[in-house]
Amino acid sequence: MVFVPIKVNVLLWRVVYNKLPTRQNLVDRNVDIPSFLCQSCSLEVEDCKHVFVDCEVASQVWIKVVKWLDLPFPLIINVTELLYWVDTVSLPDLKKKVLEVIVLTTIWMILQYRNNVFRSPAMKRSGIFETLVSGVYIIQLFKKKNEIFGRKDKKYIICVFFDEPAK
Ligand SMILES: [Zn+2]
């Protein structure tokens, strides 16, 4: 994985090792909560796999991201598999780094959406992808210390993927 901010690394670790305070995990710890259903869709039990992979909020975002990048759609079963796909997908090195940044940012944003469902104003579902594509969130997340390849320019990141000259 590329160098990412510590907060993103910590999040990934917590997701992969199922350490996030999802409703399922809270119930398992005997925490009294009103429901163990997903905070985003209210349809299924909220565990890590649901939040980041199975929830329609997440699955719709992943479909859009993969289409956007014009990559063959991977079989995503859980976040570990998703990271494995990023690691093994056949791409030139620089594109792979950009893919890593985009995937990590997407995971981060899905969690932000889930955490903000009951806040006002709530983040829009469509906002996850739109903000991602605009590069704004990528930059906000990674801008400290020029964390993306030593460059700040969001256009550069996107151009790397689409073989466009950075303006
Ligand atoms: Zn859900």
In short:
The protein is mostly helical and 167 residues long. It has helices at residues 6-16, 23-28, 48-54, 56-68, 79-88, 93-116, 125-134, 136-142, 154-162.
What would you say this structure looks like, in words?
It is globular, with a radius of gyration of 16 Å. Residues about 145-150 have low confidence and may be disordered. It starts with 5 loop residues before the first helix and ends in a 5-residue tail after the last helix. It has one domain (about 5-20, about 55-160). With about 170 residues, it is mainly alpha-helical. It has helices at about 5-15, 25-30, 50-55, 55-70, 80-90, 95-115, 125-135, 135-140, 155-160. The longest helix has 24 residues, at about 95-115. The structure holds zinc ion (ZN). Zinc ion binds near residues 38, 40, 43, 44 and 55. Zinc ion (ZN) binds near residues 40 and 44.
